[in-house]
Amino acid sequence: MMNTIILQKEKLYTGNLLLVNAGFPVRYLCEEGLVPADTRFPHILIRREAANVLQQVIKKIGCLDEIIPVSGYRSAGEQSNIYSNSLNENGKSFTEKFVALPKHSEHHTGLAIDLGLKKDTVDFICPDFPYYGICDEFRKAAVQYGFIERYRKNKEKITGIAHEPWHFRYVGYPHSEIISENNLSLEEYIEYIRDFQHDRKPLQIQKDGKRIEIYYVPFDASEAVSVSIPEQAVYQVSGNNIDGFIVTLWRHVK
């Protein structure tokens, strides 16, 4: 038995897999469902699901006293101030590499978090988060929980942002694992998933007795598109912020 779900145009601009960059601004700033990434820093907020997962990673590797959140959700006004201040303090070249324009920052989604090693002084724009020790333990563990290192080295021409070892983005599992294992940027992953359309063979992954199917649904209507989902199936739908939806479906393997 199948159920039909209706995907309205507005849903293109919501979900964990939104691509936000210089070419694709956020349509809706995430102003609801925000909670502290760490209760010790109540002013640093992210989406509840991302916050819960972040705390699971921190608990798993025992880094509560070593890694701290530096920046989470930002309003358009906050991003504008950060951009202007960086221009004044660091110059145009630095700012264009490390600070996105308002409405073009992942921090508007509530799904991005900048992390840093706990120190007496932490740089707000470029916190220290090296590729060794507890930071690298976090980086590796986070992939299994749905986080990716968003701005990797050698992806600058694709992302439009310089290498940022401290910036993590929640995309959900198994997307995080696919992205990491294939050394993809989120831009490349969004393009890759387009090859697995809903009316063809989906991308399939076997994991822990379950089969995960991922497929792309192009949005080519003015109002809505319909998608058939197996009855009682567990699934998630995310817009890509461009031209379609990504459906993730979990099936039990008999």
Automatic annotation (TrEMBL):
Domain D-alanyl-D-alanine carboxypeptidase-like core intervals: 49-172
UniProt organism field: Ruminiclostridium sufflavum DSM 19573
UniProt GO MF annotations: carboxypeptidase activity
Source taxon at top rank: Bacteria
Name used for this protein in its record: D-alanyl-D-alanine dipeptidase/carboxypeptidase
GO biological process, one term: proteolysis
InterPro entries per the UniProt record, alphabetical: DD-CPase-like, VanY-like_core_dom, Zn_M74/Hedgehog-like
Keywords: Carboxypeptidase, Hydrolase, Protease
